[in-house]
Amino acid sequence: MPTLNLDHFQTSILFALLSSVILGLTTKSTDRERLRYGAQCFGWFLLALFGISWFMKLLHG
């Protein structure tokens, strides 16, 4: 069975993508709302990822 060798950043992006898809599908009723909400959640996940990364970089120098 093939294995995936993902680093922490790639795994975080994959988690953000899959979580956004699930949230979009389960919380909204129309396709347009699902797509918009999924994209919005993905954007918020990425913003949090980069924001927390920079904060950790500032703390650790």
Feature tags:
single chain; 61 residues; mainly alpha; 0% strand; flat
Q: Strands, helices and their partners?
A:
Elements (H helix, E strand, L loop, with lengths): L7 H20 L3 H30 L1
Extract low-pLDDT stretches. Answer: none
Shape: flat
What share of residues is helical?
A: over 70%
Coarse structural class: mainly alpha
Order of helices and strands: HH
Mean pLDDT: 94
- State which percent range the strand residues make up: under 5%
Number of DSSP helical runs: 2
Largest sheet: none
Could you tell me the radius of gyration in angstroms? Answer: 15 Å
The count of DSSP E runs of length 2 or more, i.e. the number of strands, is: 0
Multimerization state: single chain
Distance between the termini: 40 Å
Question: What's a concise summary of this model?
Answer:
The protein has 61 residues and is mostly helical. Helices cover 82% and strands 0% of the residues. It has a domain at 29-61.
Overview of the structural elements:
The protein is mainly alpha-helical. It has a domain at 29-61. Helices cover 82% and strands 0% of the residues. Helix 1 packs antiparallel against helix 2. The longest helix is centred in the C-terminal third of the chain and has 30 residues, at 31-60. The chain is flat. The N and C termini lie far apart (40 Å).
